[in-house]
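May I ask for an example protein's residues together with how it folds?

___
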Amino acid sequence: MKFDLFCSLCQGSLTQDLPKEKKILENFLSQAKLADHLGIETLWLAESHLSSETQKKNKKPVIPHFKGEVSLNTDSFQLAHLVYGSTKKISLGTAIRNIVCNGGPLAHAEAVRYFLFLEEFSKFKDRSLRLGFASGRFEYSNSPYSIRPRDVFEEKFWPEVKGKILREASQIFLKGILGHEFSSAEIESSFIRKEDVKSEEVWEEMLKTLSQYSDYEIGEDTIRLKKWWLFEKVKVIPNDVSLEKLEFYVGSHSPEIQNLANGITPCKVFNLSITSQDVIEETHNRMKEVYRQKNLSWKREFMPRTVMVFLNGDKSLSSKEQSNRAKEHAAKALTTYWQALEGTIDPVKIEKATDNALCGNPQEVCEQIESRFHREDRLMLWFDLNCHENLVVKNSMKYFFEDVASYFN
């Protein structure tokens, strides 16, 4: 079993007082140094774009109850230089990089390729980059970049349309990073299929709405969507870039998107914390076959799983006291977290999801890991959820690797 560190750099707080932005970054770098010292292989960085505080002033705020900024990391590649300069060997993972905002997939492909090019000239060229990518959860991060309904049909059926954007973006992003010379005409179109929609009534309503448009191609059970990015032949530079230290992780549990991405280049899967166990196991079984067809071997560690950790291993406390304090902290942090994200995640998914948090004293956490996870899984441990006490976070990290990780390894 492998244990990585997930850092949110979130300003959210359990109190009315928000921590200073620079203090959050100082705490993060301190925790990154400790992670490196503890032998953690990968530091996964959350990203967010544009102010979650400002979006609350809009007509339809996406997260009206969230206090502070979701994440202060807007660019993992710039932050990487600080992390690498403060550590000896830890690698970075993006969790995740939104490839549809900030100029779209070509701009992000260019950023990745140039980052890797520059790294070859530094003393950090042996560090791996585990590149998790998706289309982002929050509308306020994407809509200023024209990722919003373009006509009445898209306005009316935006959830269905939005869910297909990553399919197009992934192709452009991967081909760009790989150095392909291509145009948008070579990117597969996206379709809404009758089987994708909730009911026959919704499908009929879609067809009725489209009767006024001539730029949609309608098949017997399919609707071809308009592309988001149109361009003639392009190629991302520089040309002479090594991709040896780069690993792709597609942030979607859509079999269609996973298969399409792997048709371009081997892509692992970035797992969302609310994904149910049934979906996780189905994904592992399907990806085994996808990799087998490429004469590759799929490993469970290729789908890292985010896990919130509330651990107290204070030796001055009894086991019961450790457990109670950990659970008290977890109850406050998790309640605030889910309330803050209300409306951005399907409640049914939350209800069906496996209880994600590891909570209690070291023995309890060991038992929870043993019962919920496979011995070959890779876990991204999230210690800093709504906690800005640097010493508390670092102590939890130490307790975990001294008393829990050692049990499994």
